[in-house]
Amino acid sequence: MEFVNNLLLDWGMGTVLSVILSYLIMVLVMCVICILANYVTKKVVLNVISHFITKNKFKWDKVILEKKVFHKLSHVVPSVIIYYFSSAFPDYQHLLQKGAVTYMLVVGISVIDSLLDAVNEIYKSYEISKVKPIRGYIQVVKILLFVVGGILVIANLIGESPIILLSGIGAISAVMMLVFKDSLLGLAAGVQLASNDMVRVGDWIEMPKHGADGDVIDISLHTVMIQNWDKTITTIPSYTLISDSFKNWRGMQRSGGRRIKRSIVMDMSSICFCTDEMIMKFKSIHYLTTYIQNKEQEIEAHNTSNRINTSNKVNGRALTNLGVFRIYIEQYLRNHPKIHTNMTCMVRQLDPGDNGVPLEVYAFTNVTDWETYETVQSDIFDHIFAVAPEFGLRVFQNPSGHDVKSLSGEHQGDYRLVGSG
What we know:
421 residues; 5-stranded antiparallel sheet; 3-stranded antiparallel sheet; MscS_channel_2nd; YbdG; LSM_dom_sf; Mechanosensitive ion channel family protein; membrane
């Protein structure tokens, strides 16, 4: 600073102007050096480190690189330069050093935070992490890190010892717990929701206890706002999402498939062995031709090898209309353009009950949009209801008023015939 100031004075500048220009020149020189140092660090040093890490056979250093530990560490270089350049500004040296140290502390906290994330990711690559996870312990360490780091930053800014701040925290903690109870609960819940990625804006969540079933539209310190499907708004305290259970449909939306799980109940009195006429009819159905042919050969080979008398279908093996219908529905689903081919697709028979035998369709659509999903599901069951009589089956339903009226009309006709005779 003195050298620049004297040089400007030798050039004939005034005292005040030379001091101002010398400050500006030194600030400019410091900025240029910081920019150059930052450029060299990020473009040269980090590239060399990245090249070395990507070429070796270890995996843990790649995780550290993905968590940007080295990138965040590079921010220390400009602050170190400013710290040592502060002596060129005697009037502002203390402020510059304090600001540089504060920035270094913040960078250090950020680097340790990313390093802890990397440690958790590396640990998760081992099988033991499924039995003994360390995510909770990492979060506790992070809390301690931010608390200690915040104390050090504040102590550096006010120029006091951190011990003084620690002694004062115990005295006011009780008052803060009472005054800011909801804020502290919301803050703790927010940290857990964010760190565990439990809920995001735009997620579809379901919480029947609080009448919430819709999309999350806002997450604040104290509340989470949910727009229900009927366009009403439900407001839930943030910490309720931690203390109570809720369903998040994000996994379904990410997977690209939405489940169909619905049953159709068949009247048990309509179930029978397939006759030759029925088998010939089933062979003409595209989805069943190959199945019927293969099944006939398999049944014939089994009955022949076991010398079974097939004159009575009770003996040996035989096709039933319910079994063929179940295979037809399964093949129909597998060939449906809106059914996900890489997810579970089956038609299973549930336990018989008073109403009949339930056949459950368990499959996933390849669309997750609610409106499209309901349309696909309805189309599938429209077809199933319509095609069931083609297999000699009846879908069960309790008698309706029309059924009772029809039966009473038939009986009245019988009575007239008897009376006229």
